[in-house]
Amino acid sequence: MAVYSMTGYASASTEAQSGSPQIVVEARSVNGRFLDLALRLPDEFRGLEPALRELLTANFKRGKIELRVASGREGEAVWPQPTHEQLNRLSRLEASVQSWLPKARGFSVNEALHWCKGAAVADNQDAPLLAAAGRCVAGLREARAREGERLAAMLHDRLARLRDLASQAQPLVPAVVARLQQRFLDRWQEAVTSANAAASEAGAPAVPTDALRDRALSEAASYAIRIDVAEELTRLASHIDEIERLLRTGGELGKRLDFLIQELQREANTLGSKSSALELTNIAVEMKVAIEQMREQVQNIE
User: Fold this and answer.
1) How confident is residue 75, by pLDDT bands cut at 50, 70 and 90?
2) What burial class does residue 147 get, using C-beta atoms within 10 Å of its C-beta: 0-12 exposed, 13-18 middle, 19+ buried?
3) Weakest-pLDDT range from 11-15, 43-47, 201-205, 231-235
4) Is 198 part of any domain?
5) To 5 degrees, how large is the angle CA 207–CA 211–CA 216?
């Protein structure tokens, strides 16, 4: 199944018929948290609004979609030939009104033609309009699919970048932990040596180094655990795997991707906060940049 963007545009029109104006259907879509429909219909097509809404909800799950219906020849006067049935109906309506309102004036020729024109459009163009709307909706789905394909390609590129950064950080972790642990022990040794020298000058007993060494080793191990980011890198790789699986599956996945992007951001932030080496800090910054780029694009995925 394809990955769909929430951004797209499509249009379709009815075939030109003698005595009937061509109707143009346009659909525009932008991103939104939920499915938000806005229909712009001429008065004579208001009765088709439920059918058009059903068509849209059957094809889309998220996004702000505007469907607009307009005449393709708004500047031209396309007048139908009134039928006997229309004129008879209009005559009966006029007689009924004047029976209750004797002073009401009769219809003018212009008013009668306008009424017949509207009735003809409503009677003759419903089916062609629905067919054009169906083609327009299909075109919008294709446009959203094309945009979704580009978004998926960009996300795959950023995921590959994150994997590369994680692979750079992975071998640095034990070396950084060992280096900082050794630095901790060296400073401890310097402190013990200085304390013993001061005690010797003062004639005081030397500091017992065995017990202090055990305590120092315990503190060094505890510190190494606090700065170890191997767990964060493992969770980061797991989130990347899940995002790639969702992109391969396709469908309605925007909200799940948004959640996973938040998790990636959390792991990158933790990596940066626990980092005690410049190399890991730089990697964490690069990860945040890539994740932010992904977050902006995921907002457009259905």
Assistant:
1) very low
2) buried
3) 201-205
4) yes
5) 100
pLDDT (tens digit per residue) in 256-274: 999 999 999 999 988 887 7
Q: Where are the beta strands (DSSP E) in the chain?
A: 8-13, 23-30, 35-40, 63-71
Residue 174 domain-assigned (yes or no): yes
Number of domains making up the chain: 1
DSSP 45: G
Amino acid of residue 134: G
Packing angle of the helix pair 254-274, 278-298 (nearest 10 deg): 160
> Does 63 fall in a domain?
no
Separation of alpha carbons 17 and 57, rounded Å: 30
Residue numbers of the domain that contains 206: 149-298
- The DSSP call for residue 125 is S
pTM: 0.68
d(CA 82, CA 64): 40
In a domain, 92, yes or no: no
Cα-to-chain-centroid distance, residue 52: 24
